[in-house]
UniProtKB/TrEMBL annotation:
Keywords: ATP-binding, Nucleotide-binding. ATP binds at residue 116. The keyword Magnesium does not apply. Residues 46-74 are annotated as: Disordered. Residues 62-73 have a biased composition (Pro residues). It comes from Phanerochaete carnosa (strain HHB-10118-sp) (White-rot fungus). This is Protein kinase domain-containing protein. GO terms for molecular function: ATP binding.
Amino acid sequence: MATLAFNAIATVTLTGLFPTRKNPQAGSLTTQLQRREVPLNLLKPAIRDPSTCKGNGFVDMPPRPPSKQPPPGNAHLHASLGEYLGHGHSSIVFDLRDVQLSSAPSDVVVPPLVVKVARINRVTSLLREAWFYDDMECIQGVSIPRCYGYFETEVPEDSDVRRQLLAVAKKYRPEDDGEENLVLSRDQMMGPLHPLLAERCQRRDIIAVTILEKLGPQLPLGQELSEETKEDLESMFEDMAHLCINNVEDIRWENILQAPDTSSSLPSLPSPFTQKVHRWRAIDFELAIKINLSVPHCQLEHYCGLGGVYDHVESWYEEEYSWPEEESESDEDWLESRD
Ligand SMILES: Nc1ncnc2c1ncn2[C@@H]1O[C@H](COP(=O)(O)OP(=O)(O)OP(=O)(O)O)[C@@H](O)[C@H]1O
C-alpha cells in the first residue's frame, strides 16, 4: 500500500458548501478548486547578520531542505463537507466526508482529512501558511499535520457559494469584517510584498482552501500536564526551531491538537532532528516567521508561548470559557433558506 504524496492532488471538488452545526447537511452547492503551487520566494525570511549580532543567537540561515515528494500527481479528490471543527481569524475548518480519489493508484491510502477554508478577506493568510507547510515538509506527520496542498477557485461576487461562505464566516466570527491583516503589514516592513500576495490581498472573489490531515482534540483542560507531555510539546517546537521557524505568536491551547490515532490514520513519524515520536501536533502558522535564530534561542521564545498554554490548561475552569458561540436562530433561518 502506498501513502498519498503531499503533491498528489491536482484538483478538488467539494460539495455541501457550507454546513453549520445545527444543519450539518446544509448546502447542495459544489465547487471545484485547482492546486496552486506556492512560490518559494513568497515570503522573505528575516535575516540578521550573525557577525554583527555576536552572542545574540543568530546563525547562517540553512536553505529549505529539498522536497522528498515525487513529481506532482494528477489525482482528483472529491469530498463533501462534514462537521464544523473550529474557526479562527482566518478560516473555518470542516471535516471531510465521503472522500474519493480518482486518477491515482488504487492502493493509495488516504487518511481522514479536513478542509481549512479561508475567509474571503483572508486568502493571503492561508497562502502564507501554505508556504510554511512547504517549508516544513520534513516535519509534516511528525510535529505538524500532513498538508495535501493549497487550492483556489474564482467565484463571481454574486454567486451562491460566495454568499454562503460569507454568511457562515460571519456567523462564527461576526466582528471579522474589515479587520486589518496585521501580518501582511509586518511582511511589508521587510520590503515589497510578493506580487501574488499583493494581488491576492485586493481580491474578494477567491475561495482558497488547504487540505490537511485530520488531528484529534486539544489538550484536556483543568488538569495538570505531566512532565512527559510538556517534554513532548517542547520537543515538537524544537523541530520547528531546527528549521528556523519561530511560531511563538501562535502558540496557544487552540493550536495544539492530539496526533491522529484512529485505525484509518497514518502513523506519526519520528522527528528527523530528535528521532522522537510526538503525541501532539502544532497547527496554525499564519503568524509564523522564518528567522535565522539559533535553535536554543528560538526554543527560549517557544518556551514562553508554551508557558501560557500550561497556565491555560492547568488553571482553566468552565465558567470562564464559552467558545464557540451558539448560532442565532435568525441567521440559521437565513442559511436554511439558501439551501
Ligand atoms: N488538522 C486539523 N484537524 C482537526 N481540527 C483542526 C485542524 N486544523 C484546525 N482544526 C480546528 O480548527 C480550529 C481553527 O484552526 P486554525 O487555528 O488553523 O484557524 P485560523 O483561522 O488559522 O486561526 P487564527 O487565524 O485565529 O490563528 C482549530 O482550533 C481546531 O479546532
